[in-house]
Amino acid sequence: MNADWRDRLREIEKEIFARRPEHAVNPSLERITALVTLLGDPQRAYPVIHITGTNGKTSTARMIEALLRARGLRTGLFTSPHLAMVGERISVDGQPLSGERFVEAYDEIKPYVDLVDASHEVPLSFFEVLTGMAFAVFADAPVDVCVLEVGMGGTWDNTNVADGTVAVVTPISIDHARYLGSTVEEIAADKAGIIKPGAVAVLAQQPLAAAEVLLRRVADVGATVAREGVEFGVLSRELAVGGQQLAVRGLLGDYDDLYLPLFGAHQAGNLACAIAAVEAFARTPDFEGEGQPLDPSIVRRAVAGMSSPGRLEILRRSPLVIVDAAHNPGGMAASVAALTEAFTFTELVAILAVSQDKDVAGILGELEPVATRLVATANSSARSMDPAELAEIARGIFGPERVSVTSRLDDAIELAVGMADDADAASGPGSAGVLIAGSVITAGDARVLLAAGSGAEGAAS
Questions:
Q1: What share of the chain in percent tops pLDDT 90?
Q2: For residue 299, what pLDDT band results from cuts at 50, 70 and 90?
Q3: 284-311: b or e for each residue (b if 16 or more CB lie within 10 Å)?
């Protein structure tokens, strides 16, 4: 990409990020509907697999995309938020948009963005513009299928102008309560909005209250349901070097001897949902080999190559430094369970940088039993909680002697690594580790900071 493209890319990034941020939700589909209408409704040019939930959305979306691509389909994948560069959110055939293609795509839709802005009292947001870009890019490719992750919720999410032939709902818990509701039932009702008439709803294991709401939506719109633990699920799971060995019962067949290079029972559940989603899609006319089980050898190959950057990802060894995007109590509980299952630390130093609108006490409560020390810090987001405030909450849960505080993530990493080195010197190599967590932004910042010496895949892509 020449200098002109790079200069234009920087201009575009400034323009997009100057818009209303994605966490400042204005619940309306009016603006995004106006944009995609002007663009010719590109979201209707291909079948869609739509994914919502509280935790596991991005990992499940990546798994679905990998399985579809392994089957020979051309895929579009839209996920959020990004770890390092905004272009990561839009991928075609497993490759994020290049800087040059990102510039082209933005310039192509910019006149229509301006028209919508001029005709509405509230301009298009950051996320609305990116959603429109993704739909247009996928139509231009063209892709055979779009794997579409919601930004937040479901009913009022900008992605919901698309109608998924398959709707996947990962585990639901309380998060974004300000926008989605303060109870599991309210949040499930919002997320259930992606389940459309005639679709197949693939439901991960849910709290009873959420399951009742989702099943009511399925019945109301005449959808078909596939439930983890009933119609599909994990048959067996055991630890393996660098991941886990699985057998999964799908909707069309059983798949054994699957090596998944990711940690945790939650990732096994995500994979079961992904397989079921692809099988559900296989029942539609859009998929060759309608209604037949997936080729087990293709599934094994796809699963073995799966990754989920920023999700219990090892960035450094000696001491072991792991980064995780857990940003709510449910996500932290799953990550802690996976961490304690896969690693045998006698001392774990946790670094936490979290958004100020999160259930910080709940996150800390899940982390406290496994973390011997906590370093409170901040990430690069303006929403990041002040480290001193975070430390004060943490002291009430961990006790004052187990909590340190520093204002910068790089300093926090240096401090935590030093603590882990000291523990290794006292108890033997490999006895201590470092966990960096609290948000996707924290994970992305840490990947960038540690990329030079870690070889972390995709850290700066």
A1: 82
A2: very high
A3: eeebeeeeeebeeeebbebbeebebbbb
Which SS3 state, helix, strand or coil, does residue 155 take? coil
Do the strands 166-169 and 48-52 form a parallel or antiparallel pair, or are they unpaired?
parallel
Domain residue ranges of the chain, discontinuous segments joined by + = 3-304, 313-454
Can you tell me the distance from the alpha carbon of 322 to that of 324, in angstroms, rounded to the nearest whole number? 7
Does pLDDT of 452 surpass 50? no
For residue 446, count CB atoms less than 10 angstroms from its CB and return exposed for 0-12, middle for 13-18, buried for 19 or more.
Answer: buried
Q: Under CATH, which number does the domain 3-304 receive?
A: 3.40.1190.10
The pair phi, psi for residue 373, each rounded to 5°, is -135, 155
Residues in contact with 90: Cβ distance below 8 Å, sequence separation at least 6, in sequence order? 76, 77, 78, 96, 97, 102, 105, 130, 133, 134, 137
Question: Beta 347-352 vs 432-437: how paired, if at all?
Answer: parallel
pLDDT over 80 at 24, yes or no: no
Sheet with 254-260, side-by-side order of all strands: 233-240, 243-249, 254-260
* Alpha-carbon gap, residue 232 to 365, rounded angstroms: 32
Is the pTM higher than 0.90? The answer reads yes
C-beta neighbour count of 186 within 10 angstroms:
15
Domain at 313-454: CATH architecture: Alpha-Beta Complex (3.90)
Pairing, β 75-78 against β 403-405: unpaired
- pLDDT of 221 reads 98
Instruction: Print burial letters for 369-392: b (CB count within 10 Å at least 16), e (below 16).
Output: ebbbbbbbbbbebeebbebeebbe
Residue 5 pLDDT level (bands cut at 50, 70, 90): confident
Q: Where are the beta strands (DSSP E) in 241-391?
A: 243-249, 254-260, 313-316, 320-323, 347-352, 373-376
Other CB atoms within 10 Å distance of the CB of residue 280? 26
On whether the CB atoms of residues 77 and 91 are closer than 8 A, the answer is yes
Cis before 27 (ω within 30):
no
